[in-house]
Amino acid sequence: MSNKKLVDSITSRSEDFAQWYTDLCLKAELMDYSDVQGFIIYRPYGYNIWENIQDYLNKRFKETNHQNVYFPMVIPESLFQKEKDHVEGFAPETAMITTSGVEDLAERLIVRPTSEVLFATHYAKVIQSHRDLPKLYNQWCSVVRWEKTTRPFLRGKEFLWQEGHTAHATEEEAREETLQMLDIYKDLGKEVLAIPFITGRKTEREKFAGAIETYTIEALMYDGKALQSGTSHYFGQEFSKAFDITFQNKDSKLEHVYQTSWGVSTRLIGAVIMVHGDDEGLVLPPYVAPDQVVIIPIQGKNSEVVDVTNNLFDELKAKGIRVKLDDSNRSPGWKFSEYEMKGVPLRIEIGPRDIKNVIATVVKRHNREKLQIPLKELSSKIPEILKEVHEEMYEKALDHVEKNIRIAKTYDEFKAHLDLGGYVKLSISGEKAEEIIKEDTGATARAIVEEDLVTEICPVTNEKATQTILFARAY
Asked: pLDDT band at 1, cuts 50/70/90?
């Protein structure tokens, strides 16, 4: 495999991972910066990745009887204040509308950082009886959080996401919903993004403001940092009591509903870039890639080449494969570099010599493997090869995760492991230990590990250990 760098304008990952990421977002035309700092433009190629994520999730949501809705983007300040913990959690990040441009508003309006309070007030109006339950709603929208430090897709002042909000008659049903959505997110990683998510419950310190329990999907980037890629929250009756969401149960008694919320965002695009990308550019898993296959004619004006490549394009398109035929006047070398940089999973090269030999060259983007496939078998083999590529990419990412989970029995060992990147398991005594670790090392608790304690005593506080945590430095 050649190590020659094909796209010189992308910084190498080993030289400067953060700059590599930014270069790639711009060079691959995923996004552009807008005229307002912290707000990005989603260009067609980047937005198409998001649409493919949406397609998968919408299908899974509909299969589990969820309905899509749309709520207003503004929340009256008085309404937002109703759930105390929730407000405190979001207070520093909220953007407010204070004037119409002509006169000051009688009440300030908060541009939604999330929509729990909007759904809660609606549910209080429309839920009266157990026959009205469950309410299984999801919305696709954007939210605004006034972040100080922003980075494309990973952290912005505005980002796109889906947020599910459900109401149930029983605690058991709400808890099942919380874990069911976590499983759907984990499947999204395995089946579409080729990312092996670690799932687990967040600590009290790291859970969502207003939740009783928060469950997370965590991805491990190439540089050894973790990325929280989605969450599912069990609210119990926290919001329903604050907003008086009651229903008459089967015994005609008044009861508060049990609620959940769950969401993933365009942060997933950042995860795909950083888990799979290399020094030549993007490496996109086939089922999320805007273009799964690119056909590049060699000597593209040759009539035989034109006929064969056009027919192949039609055949692949008829099979539902997202295929691009680049018959532009640019050189084959330029096209190879361009589509490598854009991460197209498969490249098919067909020229007069290939037609004479009745074969085509198929190149896998993720590992540069070249396959010689008989022309007559090409359209039937491509779906199989795409599946192979997806599985190989998933296994490579899984291997990276498994090699980067370490166990620490002492605080010094913990720090040494942390500097290697990846996750470190440590048994701690509680929030005090978490705080010390964060201040000392910059690492945070990613998820609680449901396993036996590594040590009986917490190496940080010398107090009795109560739970084992997976720690990492994170984006």
From this structure: very low
The predicted-structure confidence for 144-190, as pLDDT tens digits, reads as follows: 999 989 999 999 999 999 999 999 999 999 999 999 999 999 999 99
Write out the two tokens for 1: 């495999």
Please compute, for residue 467, the number of CA atoms within 13 A of its CA located in the half-sphere on the CB side. Answer: 19
Taking every pair of Cα atoms in the chain, the longest distance, rounded to a whole number of angstroms, is 80
Q: Where are the alpha helices (DSSP H) in 252-297?
A: 267-276
Q: Do 160 and 142 touch, CB atoms closer than 8 A?
A: yes
Total domain count, the chain = 3
CATH code (residue 411): 3.30.110.30
Query: HEC string of 393-441?
Result: HHHHHHHHHHHCEEECCCHHHHHHHHHCCCEEEEEECCHHHHHHHHHHH
Residue-wise over 54-66: b if at least 16 C-beta within 10 A, else e? eebbeebbeeeeb
Q: For residue 466, give Cα distances in angstroms to 160, 411, 455, 461.
A: 37, 16, 10, 12
Q: Cα torsion at 465, 452, 212, 443 (round to 10°)?
A: 60
**285 located within any domain:** no
Residue 175 makes CB contacts below 8 A (sequence gap 6+) with 234
CATH of the domain at 358: 3.40.50.800
β-strand pairing of 359-364 with 405-407: unpaired
Q: Is the separation of the CB atoms in 461 and 433 below 8 Å? A: yes
Q: Which domain holds residue 58?
A: 17-276
Is residue 2 included in any domain, yes or no? no
Task: Give yes or no: residues 301 and 272 share one domain.
Answer: no
Same domain, 267 and 391: no
**Are 248 and 113 contained in the same domain?**
yes
**86 in the same domain as 234:** yes
Q: How far apart are CA 44 and CA 286, in angstroms?
A: 17
Q: Where are the beta strands (DSSP E) in 306-422?
A: 323-325, 346-350, 359-364, 370-374, 405-407
Q: Is residue 196 part of a domain?
A: yes
Residue 229's closest CA among 171, 159, 128?
A: 159
Residue 189's nearest CA partner among 263, 281, 277, 268 is 268
Nearest partner of 22 among 194, 195, 150, judged by Cα: 150
- pLDDT tens, position by position, 113-141: 999 999 999 999 999 999 999 999 999 99
CATH number, domain of 249, equals 3.30.930.10
DSSP strand E in 155-239: where? 158-168, 198-201, 213-220, 226-236
pLDDT digits (tens, 9 = 90+) for 278-292: 999 999 999 999 999
CA atoms within 13 A on the CB side of 86: 24
pTM above 0.90, yes or no: yes
With respect to residue 9, please indicate whether it lies within any of the assigned structural domains. Answer: no
Q: How many residues are present in the chain?
A: 475
